[in-house]
Amino acid sequence: MLENLTFKSLGTVNYHETLELMRSHIKEKDFSNEIWLLEHPPVFTLGTAADNSHVLDPKEIPIVQSDRGGEVTYHGPGQLIIYFLLDIKKLGCGPNKLVVSIQEFIKELLSDLSIESSFIEGAPGVYVNDKKIASIGLRISKNKTYHGISINFDMDLKPFTYINPCGYEGLEVTQIKDFNRNISKLQLEELVIEKLRHIF
Fold first, then answer.
1. What is the CATH number of the domain that holds 80?
2. I need a labelling partner for 77 at 20 to 30 A (CA). Which of 59, 61, 178, 199 fits?
3. Residue 124 in 3-state DSSP?
4. Which pLDDT band holds residue 3 (cuts at 50, 70, 90)?
5. What gap in Å lies between CA 49 and CA 79, rounded to an integer?
6. Quick check: is 166 catalytic?
């Protein structure tokens, strides 16, 4: 377990700005373990393994090259993004174990909302009826993690059709509000913080 883990709710923040904040945070001499909860304005981000051909027709939505792992994905209003700025050495946890812990956390979170989810071998993330509900893309630098996960909550899913999500042609996406209309954004954030405190 991590001592002095801080949670920050940042509201809606620009992707570029957040990326710079994360990069500077993990370089700080007096590094503190933090988990950020936020939203981004509409943006497509390309991970380090991304193939540009998976962006089919971006329309007016900006495309940003990111340094997280993974392929192309979409971020937009109504999606909960959780960034993990953690010292994995202190956590005593390797990259694979961390990804498994995060996936299990999402599965349990959805279960609390009466949503049954699953994993697909070789395709990181969490799925409901073979439709993707959460994406994972991390980066580790000198034992510090940054980037994290996005959970589709209550958003316009159309921009996902402008790409091959996570590099998979025809992959469909879904969101929490399609299965549980009773939870608010604030309640979801509170539940996320409560569960993550348990894990870390």
1. 3.30.930.10
2. 199
3. strand
4. confident
5. 23
6. yes
